[in-house]
């Protein structure tokens, strides 16, 4: 038995949970469950990252106090995960009192060790990444990840002596070849560190939403210093210290975009604060991105998929299985709703579900629905057993090495082998003794499969076991339940079976179409430059053919009722107002509009407006609202008529709700 803890990144509360953030959290939960099955003592940590400029701005845009804002969005994360059967032991928030107290202690230790000094920095900052960027990292001034322009910043700051730790880090990586995984990512980090480290700015003075620097409250701590410390502010305290290395094993799961923070800054902070090499987490595993048509899914590109909607429609197990199986953990994976349904039908319905129904159906005929007695094995059973044992070992190794896709591939290879065995053993055409042996063998394989799928599909595991007449899985400390062979019997001869219909009813064409219609967002956003160019070319070609707008084209325009929640003048831009508009979505939109010559901000708050909701986001340069330069991006367009000084807003009759569509 070991002590195993797994962490997810703590999520920024500028966004609500989406499939990308659900992905890491599902993997973490599946690993936790696998370790529970092994009899390990486990701990899963997740939470929200709530300080920093990005959050302060977002709260302001919504006319909210940062704490009230973070309370609201943090709750969305906390509520979402159980709906995906994710069971975390602690949901940490960086605004938690115990976390804040710990971060201050950590700062003081590092300061006492001489690794902090005051200075000034100047450079490009991407607020989306909450990170300084070198010229080389930017593409035509834009952050390649967020596609937004970096802001020029110059301010006083504390610096962490990162450069000093370069050699120590390189030695550490050499001595701990499995610290950074997968291997390709490790090589990237090693070359980055080899190329030289610069001291890191770890405080800000131009805004206030952060943990104040002890002894100098003009500064707030850099959000990443605060955030990384969450792992230790939870697992390094009280009796939970038993989980921290060297007493326990800690695995950090992170996206590839934040590997550097975890693999370079985090161990350097720990070493600097006086932790030894043995007290550094054993593994940082960087996974890839979930993409939609090749683009990273997320708020920046407004292409996020709602995992809860999929779970409501298809069950959380289906979503969990798909994400764990379809994407090689570590690599990017394009998400496609149709592929999700195809995989459901093929792997779950036709393979595993079908095996269960066939075997239980045959048992009904052969023994009247009771577990048959297993007789002598023949070469046919031996062959099946070999395949089961080989694949169980592969499945176990897959989970151990944080390769859920491999673990599940091997698990489902068992189900395929068992289906082949049913055809070959043909219990319907053999002697009663042979039929009993074949069916008893198959029931044992199903029992083994019901355990092996538990990390990915806990509900289906329970349902499958109920049909087999077995109780739900109950992991026990020190008891290894993950099967390594099928030296059963796992079911008592003569015990009743309880068939209860298909475990994974497959979806026919019509049902698939209905599901896809429910799941796929109706509006198609043109997010990228190439997308915009293509749309323009398509539009030109079409308009040459036909000078009228077809109904289908009109239907593409997503016109909606909006409610103005907040409005403010844009400094130094006479015509512009920045509005926060509720369109009935989880988060309101920011809309920049040329209304200022007609309306004072207060005239607009509380008014219903009509909005084109699926225009590509449009940039209006940048402005300083008091917390440094911010980019002005409009996420929609208001409808109005008249000259700039005498505009009339298009509006709607009666009590239409925000988000209502115009048709
Ligand atoms: N708050 C920081 C993490 C601090 S951890 C000490 C942060 N937050 S985030 O919300 O922007 O991102 C959290 C994680 O979600 C990152 O690992 C990021 O890679 C991941 N993902 C965000 N979008 C994703 C996809 N489309 N696909 C997969 N993971 C994605 O960074």
List the ligand species: 5'-O-[(L-methionyl)-sulphamoyl]adenosine
Shape: globular
Strand content: 15-25%
Count of alpha and pi helical runs: 20
Q: Helix share of residues?
A: 40-55%
Radius of gyration: 28 Å
Q: Which sheet architecture does the biggest sheet show?
A: 7 strands, parallel
Please count the beta strands (DSSP E, at least 2 residues each).
26
What structural category arises from helix and sheet content?
A: alpha/beta
Oligomer: single chain
Low-confidence stretches: 523-547
Report the end-to-end length measured between terminal Cα atoms: 62 Å
User: What would the average pLDDT be, to the nearest integer?
Assistant: 92
Relevant terms:
663 residues; alpha/beta; 7-stranded parallel beta sheet; 5-stranded antiparallel beta sheet; 20 helices; globular; binds 5'-O-[(L-methionyl)-sulphamoyl]adenosine
Map the helices and strands.
Layout: E1 3-7, E2 11-12, H1 19-37, E3 41-49, H2 53-61, H3 66-83, E4 90-93, H4 97-112, E5 116-126, E6 131-133, E7 151-160, H5 166-175, E8 180-181, H6 183-194, E9 200-201, E10 203-204, E11 212-213, E12 216-221, H7 223-228, H8 230-235, E13 249-255, H9 259-272, E14 283-287, E15 290-292, E16 295-296, H10 307-314, H11 316-326, E17 333-334, H12 337-367, H13 379-400, H14 404-425, H15 432-452, H16 458-467, H17 509-519, H18 529-545, H19 551-556, E18 559-569, E19 577-582, E20 589-593, H20 601-604, E21 608-612, E22 618-624, E23 629-634, E24 637-638, E25 640-641, E26 648-649
Parallel strand pairs: 1-3, 1-13, 2-3, 3-4, 8-14, 13-14, 15-17
Antiparallel strand pairs: 5-6, 5-7, 7-9, 10-12, 11-12, 15-16, 18-19, 18-21, 19-20, 21-24, 22-23, 25-26
Helix pairs in contact: 2-3, 5-6, 10-11, 11-12, 11-14, 12-14, 12-15, 13-14, 13-15, 14-15, 15-16
Bound molecules: 5'-O-[(L-methionyl)-sulphamoyl]adenosine.
């Amino acid at each position: 038995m070991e002590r195993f803890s797994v962490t997810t990144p703590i999520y920024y509360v500028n966004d609500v949970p989406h499939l990308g953030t659900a992905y890491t959290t599902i993997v973490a939960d599946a690993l936790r469950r696998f370790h529970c099955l092994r009899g390990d003592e486990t701990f899963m940590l997740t939470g929200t990252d709530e300080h920093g400029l990005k959050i302060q701005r977002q709260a302001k845009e919504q006319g909210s106090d940062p704490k009230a804002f973070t309370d609201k969005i943090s709750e969305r994360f906390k509520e979402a995960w159980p709906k995906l059967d994710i069971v975390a032991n602690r949901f940490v928030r960086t605004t938690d009192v115990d976390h804040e107290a710990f971060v201050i202690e950590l700062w003081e230790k590092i300061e006492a060790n001489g690794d902090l000094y005051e200075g000034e920095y100047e450079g490009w900052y991407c607020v989306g990444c909450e990170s300084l960027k070198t010229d080389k990292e930017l593409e035509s001034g834009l952050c390649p990840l967020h596609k937004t322009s970096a802001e020029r910043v110059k301010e006083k700051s504390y610096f962490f002596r990162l450069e000093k730790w370069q050699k120590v880090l390189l030695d550490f990586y050499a001595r701990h070849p499995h610290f950074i995984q997968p291997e390709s990512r490790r090589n990237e980090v090693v070359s980055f560190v080899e190329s030289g480290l610069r001291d890191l700015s770890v405080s800000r003075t131009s805004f206030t939403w952060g943990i104040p620097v002890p002894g100098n409250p003009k500064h707030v701590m850099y959000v990443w210093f605060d955030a990384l410390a969450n792992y230790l502010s939870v697992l390094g305290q009280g009796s939970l210290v038993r989980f921290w290395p060297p007493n326990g094993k800690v695995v950090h799961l992170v996206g590839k975009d934040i590997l550097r923070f975890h693999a370079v800054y985090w161990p350097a902070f720990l070493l600097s604060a006086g932790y030894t090499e043995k007290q550094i987490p054993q593994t940082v595993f960087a996974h890839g991105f979930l993409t939609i048509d090749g683009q990273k899914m997320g708020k920046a590109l407004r292409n996020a998929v709602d995992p809860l909607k999929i779970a409501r429609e298809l069950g959380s197990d289906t979503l969990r299985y798909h994400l764990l199986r379809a994407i090689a953990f570590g690599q990017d994976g394009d998400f496609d709703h149709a592929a999700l349904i195809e995989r459901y039908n093929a792997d779950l319905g036709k393979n595993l579900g079908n095996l269960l129904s066939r075997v239980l159906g045959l048992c009904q005929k052969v023994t009247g629905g009771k577990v048959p007695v297993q007789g002598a094995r023949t070469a046919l059973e031996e062959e099946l057993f070999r395949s089961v044992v080989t694949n169980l070992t592969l499945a176990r190794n897959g989970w151990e090495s944080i390769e859920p896709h491999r673990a599940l591939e091997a698990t489902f290879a068992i189900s395929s082998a068992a289906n082949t065995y049913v055809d070959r053993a043909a219990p319907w055409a053999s002697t009663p003794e042979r039929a009993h042996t074949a069916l008893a063998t198959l029931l044992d394989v199903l029992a083994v499969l019901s355990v092996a799928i538990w990390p990915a599909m806990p509900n289906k595991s329970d349902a499958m076991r109920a049909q087999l007449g077995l109780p739900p899985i109950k992991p026990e400390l020190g008891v290894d339940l993950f099967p390594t062979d099928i030296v059963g019997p796992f079911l008592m001869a003569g015990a009743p079976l309880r068939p209860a219909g298909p475990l994974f009813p497959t979806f026919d064409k019509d049902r698939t179409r209905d599901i896809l219609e429910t799941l796929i967002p109706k509006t198609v956003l043109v997010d990228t430059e190439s997308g915009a160019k293509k749309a323009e070319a398509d539009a030109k070609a079409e308009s040459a053919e036909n000078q009228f707008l077809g109904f289908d084209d009109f239907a593409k325009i997503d016109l909606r009722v909006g409610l103005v929640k907040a409005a403010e003048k844009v400094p130094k831009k006479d015509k512009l107002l920045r509005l926060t508009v509720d369109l009935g979505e989880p988060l309101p939109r920011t809309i920049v509009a040329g209304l200022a010559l007609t309306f004072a901000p207060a005239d607009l708050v509380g008014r219903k407006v009509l909005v084109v909701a699926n225009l590509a986001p449009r940039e209006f340069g940048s402005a300083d609202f008091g917390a440094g330069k911010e980019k002005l991006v409009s996420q929609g367009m208001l409808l109005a008529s008249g000259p700039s000084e005498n505009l009339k807003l298009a509006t709607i009759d009666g009590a239409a709700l925000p988000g209502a569509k115009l048709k």
